[in-house]
Specification:
This protein has three helices and seven strands. The chain is of the alpha+beta class and 170 residues long. The chain has a single domain, classed as Chitinase A, domain 3 (Roll). The longest helix is centred in the first third of the chain and has 37 residues.
């Protein structure tokens, strides 16, 4: 019985260290994202729920994207390494051709907030307008978290370059 209890306590200690390591990694990622954003000039920053939208080209439409609205957009997803690191997904034909990356789908169409996209990307796009070109950057907490997905290692912060084509108020 004593051995079983010792084994349980040892397993709990390992799990709590792992959880603490993950939390420290997330904190470090968020600090790195803040440093990156602080280094930028001539851009507008919109922060929402752990996501950061860096607006390079303001949208031209009157409609502002909110949860429940439909959006059509192109994207290029990168692993964030203090800037745009390795491309892991894109539906933008120009980006795909330039990088030799296969286009994974045509223009993305979805309803914001219905679970069709990563939490960090959805949060970051709230407030966007059609015609906007922006980057949305967030820690692994709002991305794939502790899961390996395709060629994205677990606990990877992400940055998405986004071209908003259309917004439909629902």
């Amino acid at each position: 019985m004593r051995r079983i209890l010792l084994g349980i306590f040892a397993a709990l200690a390992v799990l709590s260290c792992t959880k603490e390591d993950r939390e420290n990694t997330i904190v470090n990622q968020e600090e790195s994202i803040d440093r990156y954003i602080s280094s930028l000039s001539d851009v507008r920053i919109a922060r929402n729920g752990g996501s950061n939208r860096i607006v390079y080209t303001e949208g031209t439409s009157e409609e502002v994207l909110a949860i429940g609205d439909s959006i059509k957009f192109y994207y290029a997803g990168y692993i964030f390494t203090g800037n745009k690191g390795q491309l892991f997904a894109t539906n933008n034909p120009e980006v795909a051709q330039k990088s030799g990356f296969p286009v994974q789908e045509s223009i993305r169409e979805c309803i914001l907030g219905n679970g069709d996209m990563l939490q960090g990307l959805a949060q970051g796009l709230v407030g966007a307008r059609a015609g906007e070109r922006c980057d949305v950057v967030f820690s692994a907490k709002y991305g794939f978290n502790n899961t390996v997905v395709y060629n994205v290692p677990k606990l990877s912060p992400l940055i998405f370059e986004v071209w908003v084509e259309e917004i439909v108020k629902n």
